[in-house]
User: Fold these one by one.
Assistant:
Number 1:
Amino acid sequence: MRTDGPVVAYGGGWLDRAAALRGDPEWLAERLGDPMSVVLPLWRDRCLVDSGRVPVRPAAVGAGELLGGADETVFLGLDAGRAVSAADLSGLEEGEACARAGAAEAVDVRALVGGLGPAEAAVQAYAKGLLHWHRGQRFCGSCGAATAAGTGGHTRSCTGAGCGRLLFPRIEPAVIMLVEAPGEPERCLLARHRGAAEDAWSTLAGFVEIGESLEDAVRREVAEEAGVAVGEVTYQGSQAWPFPAGLMVGFRATAVSTRVRVDGDEVVEARWFTRAELRARVAAGRPLGRVDSIDRHLLASWLDGRG
């Protein structure tokens, strides 16, 4: 099993999340008031950016008005000792949120990936996922009472009498896999999903279900969507997937046979591609996976004969 891997989009975040300190309200207040600290403003899961599409990062000393309009402020971590937080301005209209942050517009983090390094995109994705979780957990699912944020925004607790349920941010794991054919010639399986363009082919992927391992999920998804039985499954790498708070785990899998039978629901067509066919697609300007997705690494490493 591989234990190394590339740094893909939304990976390689450098922040020290300071888990041992973020439960101290006084320490957090001091960090938020430090003029060297920065705050990342977001609006309804979108990053607030300047006219050059660079994410806005107000210094703490100048973030008073911004924080005053925030529905929630969370501590993300320390960057070389400097605190980095995120503020949710979703309760404001977009124009007012931009004005408070000194931003030009609100854009999805995916629109910024090409101009950000993987680690910078990871911090923006981290902020988006955590603030999204807070908006969806304002009330207890057990008793219906209001919840309150704690530990710098990394927990919420129920305020209901006799309940006190403690809530933690949830991550939604998914698997994505490049399936290889058994024997010669060497081929990989790509699928065309419902709603995709006529010549848009991609790897298979799906969410992990309760009661199964990641490898089990790979085998189930490939069988359900393409009708292909899979034997060996090998880990290749992972990435945060901010839609809104997922974890995408990449695998390479070997099929037991080349027989394909698509489900006709999520996948409308699937076929085997040789390396020569994939190289021809690249030469013709066809994209080899999404720019911000680990499927690009899975396809490129297979094309280069790596892994």
Number 2:
Amino acid sequence: MTLGEGLLLLAVHPRNGRVRNVERMSPALRAVELIELSLAGRVAVEQGRIVTKDPSSVGHRLLDHSLSSLSTEAKPPKVEVWLRGKPAEAGTLGQYIALLGRRQVIRIEYRGQGLARTTRITVRDHERLAEAWARIDAVAHGEASATVQDQALAGIVHVCGLGSHLYRGPHRLMARRRLARFTVPQGVAESVRSVVTAADVELANAVAEALSSGIAKMTKELTMVLRQEYRLEMYSSHSSSGGHHHTSIDTSHSGHHQMGSGDVGGGHHHHG
């Protein structure tokens, strides 16, 4: 399961079937795609632009689509421009919903007609949802086993506003703070050392540290860009519509389906 798929599953409200903070999800999904493509050695961020290093497939339909889009750009795009997406393209959130629907990871139901049509999502694959929870729990609980990918997902969960929904209440304050604090996992170098010979330990350590610090730096940069984009979007939304915002999600490429913005049900996840 990719980080983007995990992010979407975590965003689905378990009771009302809406995507929480829906207006923030497309750029957040594009951010985790960028992190995954970087981890796979396909792209890198250099001086604020996304540079393609290797255009070969990674074996995931949506990641490969994004990689192809990046590799065919006449000039490496700026991070903030790419996170917004192209107006003519189907929304990234809609693409993920459609993909997980086809794979029967989620069930998609449409209610109402015309502009009143809404989308209700039910998570069917609870093992995948538990896997996504385990990733961010490792960070929220301060576990040493948290990987670079776990840390990156936690950082994006925080910046798109899901942390306050997933870890509610004053007793979860420390968990929310840990999600907001992207740190390099201490165990990365050790995990690499365990599979190499003693002669390669120094090189393995250097590679592991470079990978960790690079992804940490990228995630921090992406969260800063996302925060700025969210502020601009919120200002635009309030200016043009009096603060009421609708996001259109196209999961069939033949029509737009309205989903409510934000978390309207107040559900939460219980952990021991």
Number 3:
Amino acid sequence: MLRRFGHDVVAAVGDAPALMTAVAGTKPDVVVTDVRMPPGFSDEGLQAAITLRATDPDLPVLVLSQYVEQTYAAELLDSGRSAGVGYLLKDRIGEVEEFVEALERVAAGRTVVDPDVVRQLLGRRHDPLRRLTPREREVLGLMAEGRSNTAIARTLVVTEAAVAKHIGSLLAKLDLPPDADDHRRVRAVLAYLRAG
């Protein structure tokens, strides 16, 4: 397909180690990889892409995925410099001309992200509670019930020091720095109630 649009395919590989070897041996203008590759079919292709960009931040990489996987997309977009990177859902490559255009934009150093991925990433940014661990969410829920640190510690069967640590962590993750004009616990509870 790519040859039909005037592009040379210098290597076609079946697993992540072969991808790493091929890139080292051929110095391609752009790498196209699937998130999931043999042998484990988890995130080998993505991890190879991130490693390749860490080694050569100017290497353009286009990653394909079957589903919107926010963590994978965010990890790829955060790797190295942001230019020359793309994350597309596989159903987008059904429109061949659209796919080739996206590939050419990535090869030219631009960023291409599937619209569905953008929507989900923006949705994640608007929900600050997603950054909290399950235990921090539990502590925040008890705070929303009006419980003191002592009562939270008793309910969770932990020390008050552990509760204080969880509260400090969740306040930081919710971007609620110390401020004389605001009560951070109340603002954290309000964020919890808005998201609920």
